[in-house]
Structures are given as C-alpha cells and as structure tokens.
C-alpha cells in the first residue's frame, strides 16, 4: 500500500516491532512508524490507520497472531485502563525494552552510551503506596479513575487497582463503593483529584480541589468518606485546574487524618500527603543502597541533595558521618527529614526550603571538589540555571536521578560543557507494567 494514498480508515496487516516511551507499540508501514495502543512486540495485527494523527497512529482491529511474550493481564480494567499498559508483556521483556528505550533516547542527544541492565522491582504488582485518580461526574454516578487524556476532565473508571499496595487498593475499592450511589444531585461540587495513600491505620486520602477548598466540598466529602471508608482519614488541598497542589494555599486535615507512611532507609517514616515520596519504596531502597556504596568508594566531605524531598537519598550517601544540605521547595518535607536524620543518627543535616533558584546561589561557592551533589528533579527535569550552578561549583561527583529519559538526555547535554561525563547509567524499575523508568547516572569530571 502506498502511504501517500493512505487515508483515515484504511486497513492493513502489520507486525509490532518495538515499544514507544508512551507505552504504545510501533509498527512500520511503508517505512513510516505508526503508534498502536495495546500492541506488543511480536504481535501480528490488522490495523486501521490514522495517518493524519501526530504522530501517526493505528487501532488494532484484530490480533492475528499474538506475540510469544504475551501473558494474561491480571487487572479487570485492562481493556480500557491506561494505568498498566504493559501488563500483558512478560516482565523480563518489559525490563529489556526499558533498557532499549533509555539507550535509544540518550543516544539521540549524547551519541554512543552504555546503559546497564535494568534493576527489577522487588514487586511486579501491588507496589504503589499511593495512587492519584481523577474525579468526575459520570452518566449515572460520581466516578474515580486514571486519566484518559491529559486535557479532559474524565478518565477510565476503576473499582480496584492492581498497581497499588493491598492497603491502597482496598482504599480505592472502598471509595468507589462509597460513591456508587452518588449522582450529580448528591455531589454537585467535586474535587479535581483524589490521592489515596497508605497510613499507619490503612488507607487515607488527599482531595485536591480546583482553586481554594470550598467548605461545602469538605463537609460533604468528610461525611461520605468517614473512618469506616478511609481509616487513615481525609486531607483537603487547593490546586490548579489540572489537580496540582498550589503551595501557597492552606491544606486542611480532618480530625482523624494521618500522614502517609512509607519506608526510607529501612525505617518507617511519616510523610505529609502533599509532600513528595517515592511511590515504590521497595525499588527506592535499591537506589539508597547504591548511593551508600558510591559514597563509600569516595573520600567525600559533604552531600548536597538538590530537589531533595525529605532527604532520604542525601542521607543514604552521607550515613551518620557526613553533613547533608537538603534543598526542597515543599515545606512539608522538613519534618520527615528531621525524623529520618534522628533515626540515622546524623546531627549535621540542614533543610533549605524554597525555590532552588533562589536558595542555592549563595551556597555554590561553598561546594568543594570532594563533595557529592545529588540531583533528583521532577519529571520536567532540572532548570537550566540550576544545572549551570552545579557546573560552576567545584564538585567533581554528581548523581542525577531521573524518571524521564528524554529530560535526562537534555540535561546531560547541558552539563557536558561543564566537563561532567557519565560513568554509570543504571535504570531501576520503579514502575512495573508501565513504560516509565527511573535512571541513576553517575557523572564525574
């Protein structure tokens, strides 16, 4: 078939050859890549083409011959839910493709690099200690579920989640059951998102509203999601239209609300629901162990933990012996850092709250050659000015942790003129059953 004559709705048979960074399969037709939702490498499929999509896309009309690496998806929502798009691919193949994705992404920007095999997650399912779900008015009831598209208000309804820990999955099911008979007339005002997380008493939740928290929302949801539904209690926060918490707005905790509970450095610690913590604490422990090892192999003087959250990575590298400087925008992380520093017996830990571009500049002259810098920015990557400040420092050792290989490639290119060069590139599977991957890069100069 000539692609020049292809129109939307045309059909053809093809084989899925690879996986993309957004989780879709890739089929090549007349030399052009088409992105196929639900396609896995090795699948022979009949497709309907959408050549006008950007990038070009295709829909599976029929699975002619399944890939030898296909398995039964364990989730009852798998046919529609976007939460675990690789759940039908055997786990060993997921790891292999993630390594290839990282290698392919970095080589586009950096040239030939060697990426180590992916460190597997200790749990392939039921690993998330928190899930963030959309809330919307369905046809008959209030629904919760994973976002279908970034710019739409609704999502894919779910009544359980096999990515979540048993405690959090039970919370998802309890909330879904509590909302089963709630229509528009019962809940005219909805939060934008609901985060269901693990606490010391079971599942709790954080409701994120668009704009300020409306007292009517708080009162009604407290009534619906009482301790019999969420034993860990309910928090409420104001946010953007996308459901991102707005830091300057107050966060309200109901009387019985408990903080999130997670593992860090082998200790159970409490984390404010609006603060960042790794969703897969089991896989995060592997990075903590690696940071300890990398620090022990060097005669370090101080650890600088940038975008540091509650400082678990900085403390992993420092142990009880080295001073740690933690820079974090969220004021809610400081109490957990103090708790963790106490159990790690490190009295030389300082928290610098606020925007990194405002808090770091005065400290750059204090960073010495024998110090270690740890960068763990959000998915959007590090700010270019922050990278240049790191480059202007005297530090010779840098650890960059990234959950976005494309942004990692971009930022490593910014660091290259400052003579930072990758020595180790090691992916860790923080997000089984999805295309997402965490990458630890050790850079030296």
Concise structural overview:
The chain has helices at about 90-110, 165-180, 215-225, 280-295, 310-320, 335-345, 355-360, 385-390, 405-415; strands spanning about 10-20, 25-30, 30-35, 45-50, 55-65, 130-135, 140-145, 155, 195-200, 200-210, 235-240, 250-255, 260-265, 265-270, 305, 325-330, 350-355, 370-375, 395-400, 420-430, 440-445.
Give a description of the structure:
By secondary structure, the protein is of the alpha/beta class. The protein is 22% helix and 28% strand. It is built from nine helices and 21 strands. It has helices spanning 91-110, 166-178, 215-224, 281-296, 312-318, 334-343, 356-359, 384-392, 405-415; strands at 11-19, 25-29, 32-36, 44-50, 57-65, 130-137, 142-147, 155-157, 193-199, 202-210, 234-239, 251-253, 260-264, 267-271, 303-306, 324-328, 349-353, 372-375, 397-402, 421-428, 438-444. The strands form four sheets. It has a seven-stranded mixed beta sheet. It has a seven-stranded mixed beta sheet with strand order 17-16-15-18-19-21-20, sandwiched between helices. Helix 1 runs parallel beside helix 9 (405-415) and helix 4 (281-296) packs parallel to helix 5 (312-318). The chain is globular, with a radius of gyration of 23 Å.
């Amino acid at each position: 078939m000539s692609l020049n004559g292809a129109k939307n709705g045309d059909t053809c048979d093809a084989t899925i050859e690879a996986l993309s960074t957004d989780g879709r399969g890739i089929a090549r037709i007349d030399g052009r890549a088409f992105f196929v939702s639900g396609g896995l490498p090795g699948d022979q499929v009949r497709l309907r083409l959408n050549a006008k999509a950007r990038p070009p896309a295709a829909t599976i009309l029929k699975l002619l011959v399944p890939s030898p690496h296909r398995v039964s998806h364990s989730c009852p929502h798998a046919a529609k839910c976007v939460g675990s798009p690789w759940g039908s691919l055997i786990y060993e193949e997921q790891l292999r493709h993630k390594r290839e994705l990282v290698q392919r992404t970095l080589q586009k920007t950096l040239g030939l690099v060697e990426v180590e095999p992916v460190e597997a997650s200790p749990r392939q399912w039921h690993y998330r200690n928190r899930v963030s779900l959309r809330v919307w008015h369905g046809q008959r009831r209030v629904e919760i579920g994973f976002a279908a598209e970034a710019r739409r208000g609704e999502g894919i309804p779910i009544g359980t989640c096999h990515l979540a820990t048993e405690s959090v999955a039970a919370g998802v099911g309890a909330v879904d059951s509590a909302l089963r008979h709630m229509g528009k007339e019962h809940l005219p005002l909805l939060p934008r998102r609901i985060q269901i997380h693990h606490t010391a008493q079971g599942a709790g939740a954080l409701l994120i509203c668009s704009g300020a928290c409306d007292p009517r929302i708080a009162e009604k949801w407290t009534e619906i999601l009482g301790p019999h539904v969420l034993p860990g209690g309910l928090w409420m926060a104001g946010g953007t239209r996308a459901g991102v918490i707005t830091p300057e707005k107050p966060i309200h905790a109901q009387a019985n609300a408990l903080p999130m509970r997670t593992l860090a450095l082998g200790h159970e610690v409490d984390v404010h629901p609006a603060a960042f913590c790794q969703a897969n604490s089991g896989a995060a422990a592997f990075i903590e162990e690696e940071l300890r090892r990398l620090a022990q192999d060097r005669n370090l003087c101080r650890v600088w933990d940038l975008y540091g959250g509650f400082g678990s990575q900085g403390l992993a590298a420092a142990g009880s012996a080295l001073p740690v400087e933690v820079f974090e925008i969220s004021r809610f992380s400081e109490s957990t850092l103090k708790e963790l520093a106490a159990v790690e017996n490190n009295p030389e830990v300082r928290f610098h709250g606020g925007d990194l571009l405002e808090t770091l500049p005065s400290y750059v002259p204090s960073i010495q050659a024998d110090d270690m810098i740890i960068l763990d920015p959000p998915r959007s990557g590090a700010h270019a000015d922050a990278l240049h400040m790191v480059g202007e420092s005297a530090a010779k050792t840098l650890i960059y942790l990234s959950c976005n290989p494309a942004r990692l490639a971009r930022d490593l290119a910014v660091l290259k003129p400052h003579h930072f060069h990758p020595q180790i590139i090691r992916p860790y599977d923080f997000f089984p059953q999805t295309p997402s991957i965490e990458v630890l890069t050790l850079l030296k100069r």
